[in-house]
Structures are given as structure tokens and as C-alpha cells.
């Protein structure tokens, strides 16, 4: 990662016209690849229906990372911005509330916990995640988006034992520390939805950074019961001025 100035995050020079053409072409190919997945899913659902299994099957769609194609002058899937981190998750089936959409964040460990709960199975080890169906029900009952801290980290794709960054995504904030430089990065999506300003050094966010540092340290190496499980708590807000 490359950082320029306390309020600007970048990853290199702007792309040339030729590079942009290549990115558009690759992006189009990825859309076409996704359409092939759509057709495969349609075939699977048709088979479930014809075999009488559809109404007793839970289907979960998600992914591990989003792919950045030119956003923030970057390529790849291991960045701290929403293009990499904010992946839609869709569930349908028995036990899943119908026709609702919530903004509560979940993580990949939650999928395993959810599958076990829906299957009424007892996991053989302590679970890092929570049952997503309960999150959906709780959000609907509360009439608002509920938040819990989600630990985040990125590791080299070709191996290695040193992370690229570690941090936390919590409500409106993403807070990370770049491992190689120790540089902190804070995004406040409430005022900067495109995540273009690093606010970690902004004095108005001193209390926010202090709170997120404590929370990140608490859950950095969590496992089982020590991982964040509740959607509660009050987030600090920036000072006026």
C-alpha cells in the first residue's frame, strides 16, 4: 500500500487510457463468468424442485472477497476498502425470514455457525461465528441496522506469515494498521462513503480512534467464545469542528 498525506489514500499513479480499456474488458469477462454461475444455480434449483427438496433446503450465496478493478487506483481483492470487504450475502429457505434486507455485517465464520444451527447440529468445536438467521430476526424486531465489530486482516496471496494489515470494521468505521509501516487508516463511511480520506490523524476523530484501537486489540486473536457475538454497544462519534 502507498499512502500520500494524512487525508488521502492512493495506490499509485492514475491508469492510462490503454490500462482502462483492459480493465473494462476484463470486467466484462467477469460479468459473463458470473452469468454462467447464474445458469448453474438455476439448474440446481430446478433439480431441487423436481426432486421435492427445494422447500427443505437452505441456499446461501456469498463470497470470500470482492475484487477491486481500478477503484482507488488499485487492483486485487485484499484491500481495506468496501470493494474488497463488503460482499452481499443472500439466504433463502426454511427458517430464514422472507423478503427482508438488513445492513448488519457478518463474516465467513458466521456461515458455518448458521448452517449448524439450521441443521440442528452440535458443532464439535467452539464457534467463532453467530447464527445469521438470529441477526436477521433481531434487526427486524429492532427496526434498525444492528452492528457488531468484525475483525479484518489481509495476508499475502503467495504465502508468508506477515499480514498486510489488521484491523476492524465496525458500523460506519473501518480502522486498520498497515503492518509494514505502522500507518493507521480510518474511514468514516457516514461522511465519506467512497473511502477516499484517511481520518486517523484528524483530531476530531481522536475518541473514535481510541475506541476502535481498544476493540481491535480485544478481538485481534479471538477464537470461540472470545470472538464478538453481540450486536450492541455505542460507537464514538467525531467531535464537532
Automatic annotation (TrEMBL):
GO MF term list: hydrolase activity; transferase activity
InterPro entries: Alkaline_phosphatase_core_sf, Sulfatase_N
Domain Sulfatase N-terminal intervals: 13-118
Keyword vocabulary terms for this entry: Hydrolase, Transferase
Highest taxon of the lineage: Bacteria
Keyword Hydrolase listed: yes
PANTHER family, alphabetized: N-ACETYLGLUCOSAMINE-6-SULFATASE FAMILY MEMBER, SD21168P
Protein name: Sulfatase-like hydrolase/transferase
Amino acid at each position: 500500500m502507498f499512502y500520500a498525506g494524512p487525508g488521502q489514500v492512493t495506490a499509485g499513479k492514475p491508469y492510462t487510457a490503454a490500462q482502462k480499456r483492459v480493465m473494462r474488458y476484463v470486467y466484462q469477462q467477469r460479468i459473463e463468468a458470473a452469468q454462467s454461475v447464474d445458469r448453474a444455480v438455476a439448474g440446481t434449483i430446478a433439480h431441487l424442485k423436481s426432486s421435492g427438496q427445494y422447500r427443505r433446503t437452505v441456499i446461501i450465496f456469498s463470497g470470500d472477497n470482492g475484487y477491486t478493478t481500478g477503484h482507488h487506483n488499485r487492483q486485487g481483492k485484499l484491500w481495506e476498502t468496501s470493494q474488497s470487504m463488503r460482499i452481499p450475502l443472500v439466504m433463502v429457505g426454511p427458517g430464514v425470514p422472507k423478503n427482508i434486507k438488513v445492513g448488519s455485517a457478518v463474516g465467513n465464520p458466521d456461515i458455518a455457525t448458521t448452517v449448524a444451527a439450521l441443521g440442528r447440529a452440535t458443532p464439535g468445536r467452539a464457534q467463532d461465528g453467530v447464527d445469521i438467521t438470529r441477526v436477521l430476526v433481531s434487526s427486524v424486531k429492532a427496526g434498525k441496522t444492528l452492528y457488531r465489530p468484525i475483525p479484518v486482516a489481509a495476508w499475502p496471496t503467495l504465502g508468508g506469515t506477515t499480514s498486510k494489515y489488521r484491523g476492524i470494521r465496525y458500523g460506519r468505521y473501518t480502522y486498520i494498521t498497515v503492518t509494514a509501516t505502522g500507518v493507521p487508516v480510518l474511514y468514516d463511511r457516514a461522511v465519506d462513503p467512497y473511502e477516499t480520506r484517511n481520518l486517523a490523524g484528524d483530531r476530531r476523530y481522536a475518541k473514535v480512534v481510541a475506541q476502535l484501537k481498544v476493540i481491535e486489540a480485544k478481538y485481534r486473536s479471538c477464537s470461540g467464545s472470545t470472538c464478538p457475538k453481540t450486536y450492541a454497544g455505542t460507537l464514538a462519534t467525531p467531535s464537532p469542528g
